[in-house]
What does this fold into?
Amino acid sequence: MSAQIRLIILLSTFIIRIKILIQFNTVTMKRSVSNPHLVLAGVFLSLLTTNINSQKIAVLKVELLKAAYGLNIPVTINLDEVTYISDTLLVLYEVKNNNRTIVPFQIESGDPRKLTWQVAAENVPAEVHIYELAQGKARQPDVIKATSGNGALVIHTGDKNLLQYCFKTVYPPKGVDTAYKRSGFIHPLWAPHGQILTRIQPPDHYHHYGIWNPWTHVMYEGDTIDFWNINSRQGTVRFAKFVSVENGTVFSEFSALHEHVVFKKMRPEKVAMNELQRVRIYTPGKDQDFFIVDFNIQLNCADANPVKLLEYRYAGFGWRTTEKWDNKNSMVLTSEGKTRKDADGSKARWCMVQGDIDNDYAGVVMMSFPTNYNFPEPLRIWPENQYNRGDMFANFCPTKDMDWLLSPGKNYFLKYRLLVYNGRVDKGKAESAWYYYAYPPRVIIHLEK
It folds into this structure.
């Protein structure tokens, strides 16, 4: 907007305000004969308030240098570098063809505050999105929520469920060894159209729990402990407490503390390792058949003893898929072009599993972050003939071919993203989703003077 147009708007607003005050404040006008500055001060204050409520703070330019295939791309800025204005007095607009559309955003409190929104990408080779951050009031309802009940936290948008986190201990079916009980896992994970993409306690592996993150061979205090095959009664992983739960316009997020518990013969159980798991679920766009889930996992030793995660063929971030998938109606593809025939043992930045389900098609792209241990991470993918029908299990296993020593007093991190969708995703779209996860788009900030 040019300076001349701004001046015209300013003068017009000033004149309108004077007319309104003259029409509706005649009593004040009459009294102002002895004090004319009263009216002028009122007019100026009213005008100033109007301008503040619509004042532009900054222009934000987001560049997508690679094709984003119509996905939503989460972006975050340090809000305190832009403004200290209160969270409740901010509005974000996207500017297209001289039109301004309100964009949902979410602010995380802290030092610094962070402002996050999703860029609704188009299906073009490259694109630029322009936003305006302004001072004003726009209602920001909680669109995506975490609702607790019956021992589980359900993340949903309206009546559409996206993900459930089970914090209460879940026991195996009647007649099955109770050593298979477990808490602190994801199930169900729903596709956008409502199909369930996870499975727990299958008869072939009662210790499989949807999406979960245990370790199989762990050296602790001179003993090798198995936290994965919990029926061995060597150890387990269990929910300890929620650290935080947040609802919002852009995402819902919870942080849960998991304890890796060692069972000692003739001695009390002992916590060997703490796992702080932060899970963020982004709001699906309107009429969009996908959404994003981010896992940020922090590991540390629970006492002064080191923990060594020993090399083993499976361990870490695993997904037991729906029983409705087999080797005839589903497929696997990795970032390196591997399929189910040869993906096991290979390394990958991402791995996609998708297939037919309930007269529909759905899938998940599992993505590993570049700072993860042993990146690109080795995969454990069940073979095509698993249990004769090709049941499906996928696992990022950073210790598949090497040990990982966790030293006391230090924190260790693993980060994963899931793209959950209906329809089909090809290699190009999966690669784009991983790229914008590993390398979020640059936000160029121009502050208004």
Residues 3-24 form the longest helix (22 residues). The chain has three domains: 3-23+35-53, 56-140, 145-439. Residues 56-140 form a domain with the Immunoglobulin-like fold (CATH 2.60.40).
